[in-house]
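Contributing new records

If you add data, match the layout below exactly. Sequence lines come first and carry their own label; structure lines follow with theirs. Keep one chain per record. Anything else will be rejected by the validation script.
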Amino acid sequence: MSRLTLLVLLTTLSVSAWAAVPEPALRVTFDSPQIVQVGANRAAPLALSPDLLVPGKTGQGLRLQPDATNLLPPEMADPDEALLKQLVLDGAAAQISAGPAVAGKTSLRLVFDRAGASCAFPLLSLADPPASLTQSSSFVFSAWVRSLGGPGRVSLALRAKGLNKANEETVATPTQTFDLPADQWQRIALVVDLPKDVVKQEITVQIENTAPVESTVLLDALQLERAKAYPQYHSTPTDWLPGGTSRQVAIPSFRIGGLPIPVAEGSFALWVRLDPVLADLTAGEVTWFAIGNGWTRGWEFSSSNATAGAAGVRFRSILPQLADSQFHLLTLTWDQEKVAAYLDAELLAEAQLTAPPLSPDQLISALCVLGSHQPRRRTCFGTVDDLRMFDRALTAEQVAELIQAPE
């Protein structure tokens, strides 16, 4: 971890080049450790890993994703010779290839001699499954696949074998088909929903050639993660991890203290970009911005709700609308009468405001969390950039102008 100064610009209200929108009272960016002098100014330090900094909307942005664990053993996650002994081949041949590979130095090369040929092997085979498996009913499986010599098509299915009460049974998931471009690595993913009373003693994957002719594909960087479970509630795979390893992401946050957060009325605007959604896996809930004390929430903007104190608005999940890998502007406004949430220039919902979000005394100890509901809860998959806080409730016209304003 390195120290990076969180840029907080405190400005006096003035007429800007685009006069319909006021200057922000407070601004958070990730562009420079230097203080930019604009009116009264203050800098708050924030510990950030340089690995989290990526190109943003207005400069550098902050890319986040949930904590994760790859449940697969190393030889499955990064195929090696031990994997070959466990393959069940039907019309296919397999070998460990020295390249190309996504992870490590090798990949699994599958040669299908006809349409319908398949390969199956156990991802996990355990006599005594750990609690992370027995207490979970949903998983997300992902792998990187490459079709050699021409476009390809494969289908993916998983089966779980366990003990359901006193009877052994096998539970199969629906098959999903993926079109593969020629000679390009593509990540494919599948959500596995299993009955809660099935003890997962074995999880098997089957890959079938659904192209009309023979084909050759490479398989690499396999990952199995828990999904749809507290505290993340996600069903999108995180960045690949070696088998049996975990990742913890440091969620950036800072105390409000004496920073001039508006209370009686105001607006927050934040640029967000969702990571590419794999196989339309848009289920789950993510939060991009929150200010509060523990479970006492002052403000929050999530994928299906936004709140300003006791007042909240709910709307259909916006994750599908964010699945274009482009930056979108999330805006929350409130005054003494109502609270409203916007996606770009579109009003998502509005409701009557019944009480101020937080009192000045509560704000002093409040925590501002970027990219999450609370540290490590409902963390976003993607990039956040340029949080602006205004001391007035922006109108719909001003929200629309924010999108077009000079950066």
